[in-house]
Amino acid sequence: MNETKRPEKCSGCGIKLQTADKDLPGYIPGVAFEREPVICQRCFRIKNYNEASSVSVDQDEFLHLLSGVGEKNALVIHIVDLFDFEGSLISGLQRFVGNNPVILAVNKSDLLPKVTNWNKLRNWMQQRCKEHGLRTAEIVLCSAKRNQGFDRLLEAVSELRGQRDVYVVGATNVGKSTLINRLISDYSDLEQELTTSRYPGTTLDTVKIPLDDGHYIIDTPGIVYPWRYSELVERKDLGAVMPENPLKPAVYQLNEGQSLFFGGLGRFDFVKGERQSFTCYISGTLKIHRTKLERADSLYQEHRGELLSPPGTADMDKLPQWQRHEFRIGRNSQSDLFISGLGWIKVNGTGGAVVAVHIPKGIKVLTRPSLI
Hints:
Residues 63-226 form the CP-type G domain. The protein is α+β, with helices and mostly antiparallel strands.
């Protein structure tokens, strides 16, 4: 390949290519320019060996990029993770996008039970967005893994795009690149596939994909939100906390003064209230262990990393110390206790309860109206 015709950016992740330092983003050995497509060493490793180096980029650059979207004529697709809805929603997105229409693409809808009321679910999401000040032109439920919901997403894009470029935004690891690959196949003749992996932050810079009508799909870097459990665990252990198969609700009848451990990654206490049931929506790979509240602290000290251990995680000491969060659930409130990236516990009783969660410091925990 002629030196002057070498591409400047990686066709997988969009980072500017360089041959000087293999430890910096965008490194590519000189001989790799002969391959098609031309991708950086990091993307090559992800594609061929399912591994990623610890390259990171400054997120301030992403915010700067996003701030310019409101000044352009654009359609914004905001992709969120249904399993981690509050953790992956971009708070304050409205002030960046201005009056441009926003499609909320809710990925991983395949994780919910088949009996789910989808209209009720959309109304629930509309209300959550409203609370965050986000106006959505359309909410589309989809599954990148099972290739579901894309026809409706493409219809929504066709209805709203007009003469606009399409910006795709989202937190890390919500399935953004997989969805964009589908958009490419439907809107562009360009035979290009973004680097897709389960590692956060796979897309390192903006990637402009030309469409057949002269406009572009612009893929933006994923935002790293430190309050998500998926940002805390080691990359090799992401599969332990992020479910890949439909959730199987685990129902527990608890008395006041009982606790549930979630594979050593968190603890739920039923502190006060009448006997009632709680439904846990977490990854099936995490074992739930029930014990008495009075024994919970000593059990954790004695068995952390053994009985109370997530699959595959060898060193739990790398996680931050646990912090206790207490909540008072009102009567007839139909509430979830949401833990970002780990799942949620639905409170089924109508008489109210005092509950607590012990989770690594910094993880987002909140109560919300029940999702299901």
